[in-house]
Specification:
36% of the residues lie in helices and 8% in strands. It is an alpha/beta fold. It folds into two domains: 48 residues, no CATH class; 176 residues, 3-Layer(aba) Sandwich (Rossmann fold). Strand 1, helix 3 and strand 2 form a beta-alpha-beta unit. Helix 4 runs parallel beside helix 5 and helix 5 crosses helix 7. The protein is elongated, with a radius of gyration of 53 Å. The chain starts with a helix and ends in a 6-residue tail after the last strand.
């Protein structure tokens, strides 16, 4: 009986040991056995190499929106003034039919000696006074507003030679602004101060140098105001730059023949007004009698 019990115990121990062996073997199989890799030996490079390759398709750069092209500003046609240049074809009296004249006694000679009636003879076209200066011209300019003038001729300076230029410029600008407001479509001419005789230059306060300086100022005013400048000085002076003594009774005003030079100058120095005028005929053949003046580009 004792031997049977011992045998049973031994059999039980054998079963237990066998189960334990099976368990140990199973654990080793799950852990990879003796060939398992020690994870503590993996380097960062090994880990990085084991990662899936990143997507190599580059991200497209955003397309910049093009800047809109600026529309260029229109180029303004340069102004041709202020000096009025000589035209190849003279204009007849019809060009001056709508002209008004503002100035002093020197200007009045154009009216008094206008024997061929080139300029208007109607006194309503003439606004002048002895010894009148540009500083006193505004009331006369105001009177001109009652008429529809297409051209306005201004002659001042011989009585203002001793004034300072800032005062003169202000006065001229005031009168020109006034005329432009009342006659917005008119061609406005500033005529140069006319020459004086050598006697005046030597004995009076009317100096040739002052006349030249005044005319330079008039050109500046004309350019700034976009009006026109008529340089009549060279037509009326002699070779020495002075008014010839045999054409003037007082060194300032002229005789009729010398005023005719001024009148002739006006017929060839003008700004076209957009109209056509019959060309004065002298000995032209009959078939040419219908010729007309066509506007040339503005001087």
């Amino acid at each position: 009986m004792r031997h049977k019990t011992v045998a049973l115990i031994l059999i039980g121990l054998s079963v237990v040991l066998a189960c334990a062996a099976v368990v140990v073997l199973r654990v080793r199989m799950l852990s990879g056995g003796p060939e398992a890799v020690d994870v503590t030996a993996v380097t960062p490079a090994d880990y990085a190499a084991a990662q899936p390759a990143p997507d190599q398709t580059p991200t497209p750069e955003p397309t910049a929106t093009p800047e809109p092209t600026a529309t260029p500003e229109p180029t303004e046609t340069p102004w041709a003034g202020p000096l009025v240049k000589e035209q190849s074809v003279p204009v007849p009296a019809a060009y001056f039919a709508d002209a008004g004249f503002l100035g002093n006694s020197v200007l009045s000679g154009l009216w008094l000696y206008n024997n061929d009636l080139l300029l208007p003879s109607d006194p309503t076209h003439w606004f002048w006074q002895d010894s009148l200066t540009i500083m006193g011209a505004s009331p006369y300019a105001a009177q001109m507003a009652a008429y529809d003038f297409g051209k306005i001729y201004i002659e001042f300076g011989i009585n203002e030679l001793t004034y300072d230029q800032s005062t003169l410029q202000e006065a001229f600008n005031t009168v020109i602004d006034q005329l432009q407001a009342d006659h917005p479509n008119a061609i406005i001419y500033l005529m140069s101060v006319t020459p004086v005789s050598q006697y005046c230059d030597a004995n009076l306060s009317i100096k040739q140098s002052a006349v030249m300086a005044f005319n330079n100022m008039l050109q500046t005013i004309a350019a700034e105001q976009h009006v026109w400048y008529l340089d009549v000085y060279p037509v009326l002076c002699g070779p020495d730059g002075f008014l010839p003594s045999d054409v003037t009774p007082d060194g300032v005003h002229f005789n009729p023949a010398h005023y005719q030079l001024w009148l002739d100058y006006l017929t060839t120095h003008y700004v076209p007004d957009g109209r056509e005028y019959a060309v004065p005929q002298t000995e032209a053949p009959a078939e040419d009698a219908g010729d007309t003046v066509t506007d040339a580009p503005a001087a």
